[in-house]
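Consider the following assembly input.
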Amino acid sequence: MIKMNEGRIIYINGSVIKGSGMKNFKLREMVLAGENKLIGEVIGIDGEIATLQIYEETEGLKLKEVIIGLGAPLSLNLGPGLLGNIFDGIGRPLEMIYHQYGDFISEGIGLLSLDFQKLWKVTITADVGMIINEGSEFGWIQETSLVSHRMLVPPGVNGEIVFKSETEECRLDDILIKIKDDKNQIHEIKMYQKWPVRKKRPIRERLKITEPLITGQRILDVFFPIAKGGTVAIPGGFGTGKTITQHQLAKWSDADIIVYIGCGERGNEMTDVLEEFPGLIDPRSGKPIMERTVLIANTSNMPVAAREASIYTGITIAEYYRDMGYHVALMADSTSRWAEALREISGRLEEMPAEEGYPAYLPSRLSEFYERAGSAMTLGHKEGSITIIGAVSPAGGDFSEPVTENTKRYVNVFLALDKKLAYARHYPSINWLNSYSGYVKMLEGWYEQHAGEEIISLRGEMLQLLQEEASLQDIVQLVGEDVLPDFQRLIIEIARVLKVGFLQQNAFHKEDAFVPLEKQYEMLKIIDYLYKKAGRCIKEGIPISKVRNREIFDEVIKIKYNVPNNNLGMLQDIRKRIEDYYDDLLNKYSG
Amino acid sequence: MRKEYLGIKKAEGPLIFIENVEDAVYGEIIEINVDGEPRTGKIVKIDKNFIVAQVFQGTSGISSVNTSVRFTGKPMEMAVSKDILGREFNGIGEPSDGGMPIYSKTKLNINGSPINPIARQYPRNYIQTGISTIDVLLTLIRGQKLPVFSGNGLTHKELAAQIVSQAKLSSSDENFGVCFAAIGITKDDGIFFRDRFSQAGSIENVVMFLNYADDPVAERLTAPRCTLTAAEYLAFHENMHILVVITDITNYCEGLREISSAKEEVPGRKGYPGYLYSDLSSLYERAGMIKNKKGSITFLPVLTMPNDDITHPIPDLTGYITEGQIVLSRRLDNSGILPSVNVLPSLSRLMKDGIGLNYTREDHPELANQLFSSYSKVQEIRSLAQIIGEDDLSEIDQLYMSFGRAFEEEFINQGFLENRDIEESLNIGWKVLSLLPKEEMDRVSDQIIEKYHRK
């Protein structure tokens, strides 16, 4: 038994403690503090005194209690059993904690991780005598009915396979293959890898972004597309629907793996996900979406230091699945709570605060996090990606605060949620005038090939229409709608159709929660057709009161509910009715 | 026998500093003797050379020589049993009604522990409050935390008392109780609440924790924790459905700021400590339901927004943690439209899963949506009317104006004594909505319009 490093507690202030006699401790080393063995991490060293942050409630810690060093940084066990499961901020499975410790989470539970007793059916595809390199696949496990878990050689290991396990069913700790490297050292490869969460997992190279993350949400897919491997921020005051938007993306986007981090948010929201997701069926695979989902929960009343760690835990899991060649989407709800955790710990360390009390290193931490997104060629020559979608909760709903401002510098899609829209129950309350996507140009090729030639130019026209409508509304606010010329009133009417019939999307309606891109495009084309036809009539001098036919406008608005996603043929009838009505109108007036 | 320390190094605001302590537990309770007078305190910081404790009964009269301190090694606990029902306590959980102390083997740490998200049960059952705006538009769900955002001088007291006395579960055979905490309120307000509870005949099911405006500030921090501990005991050990009402959270946060600045901590926004969010959530997140447990904790914190500013850190951070908010309006309050709930910025996040067919009535979700959307349109038209005059509005806009008036006068306005059941509230909703033509119903399906629209 190796003699472990030991220190003694000399200072306690919330989640920050200090110990003396710790000159052999390393920065970022994991420790166990006190009689209850609370888990913590070294975050500062000054001579023989070390500063630690503790991931559990520190009430009950005693002066002079022992601090034990574990010799390694905060790490995760990455292996099968992650999917469909829920973990706390430092990667401990909450299900296991619940069964062993009951309804409430107390401190001193210790380091739990994946289930080491469970038997997995293993298929090893590599053979003895083969030369195998880091990141290469040597076998697979059917982790859930939806996802096959590719087993990869850990980074840094290269050599010849000298042993292969013949057992069909294995536990996490069983040795599957042995690799002899060029120094004749034998590496025993198991089903899982240990990885320090704050360290980026290596890739071969970053790839160009070429493909969108299709979400089934009209305002995103058409107006503000998200790319696979891209970065997105969703800022919004409370009540604007950040969490619902994140849930919608977790449910319906076409990623292979979803990592959802509930960072400092409500306990009931995690429960909602746990209850709802197993019952939801992915429209593409027909399997429950929980089978591709990993949840990380650090609810707002759980210890704040673990909140700081939860973001790293999540992104490390995401990188692990990316290395298998999957497209991973990571939702962090909310990055502001993470930033506040940094602020709280920084305050307790008595560091010099920068803007609004946040530490001066906030921007660099944010950029480090968002830079772990991207489309990549993995070490094992697979293509995978990580898309990061971070919710931001700006204080007072004011986007000029430090977290929103700094996040904006590192993300390419900015989806500004709007209180006014939320008050009017216009959901998703994404403001189309303040939001942007930097991926439109990069994805143009994909859209033209997969959705239709015109879609990008049509998108531009429609955004312009909305822009015009916004300036017209300013005039309407002052003098009323009646004084506007008819062609401008038509713009307002069409914008209304676009807003109610297209931009608003009902997350709780069975036809509307998820809409395939094909229908989105067809809907947009119908609205455009209506605009063109009606515009023609206005040009001929037909008054707006005749052109604005309630029945036809309503029918277009209600396409989202009345035309099922699998019966787009019905749209031809609607187009025909628009054509007939306006041709008829023209005939009457010109005749 | 534990050591007793004679003399202290320093006293500052609510804090005392004690030197050369050999053995101290973070968060433990200390017994302080000031010239023979007993006080209690809690350790809030341990440093190599000294420890810092906050004194619950205040630090006045303490000198560096007349004070001795004894360490108990225990966290702050409260004795709980079913006998707490009908009783009155001070901010640190001691009976203040002159009655017997509570004897019980069950002593709970007042800080509680976080509920494992796995153990939580998602709240779905609604609570009828008898108030139309809340029942129809902001339905309160059992296990929800829904704060009231008010302003100084508004009628939040009356609203809180009305909810407590009218709240009704959908099935009446279940045990219902109220845990009420008043933090930093005036004595008059204390009397008001006691009167309203006893008039409603509910006093024997109410546990009260009173911390008056002139009580020591350190007790403001423990009062809500004692209240929630009592609630957790009643809900999860005695299977009761508990409504927790705490007023006024703003005073709590002021207390937190005072103590934080005495500890010389780095301040965050507006001088509040950087951990205000975590601290508030350690209260709010104690609401909820647990699988396999019959009881529930529904939490209704009341706070006054300084200067009616919803972006002030206290309402702002609260709104980020709670499941919606009920915002009161000074304009409605001044016009005598009571309870003055400002429905547009208000929200109940959990209502979507607890209303409609099988819970309230099939038309409820769509009606609520339509009322929100139409009333928000009224606001736009009102600002237009202010410029061009109401007479010059278009015909349809004039209809919206009369809908807006009827909505406020008939639907929102009901006073603090009228108790409307859900059916009645929904019907009033349709009555005022029917002032608008069917074509304006863009959030309601055709068959619901046919069935309920009255034109």
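Chain A has a mean pLDDT of 93. Ask yourself how this observation constrains the way the partners meet.
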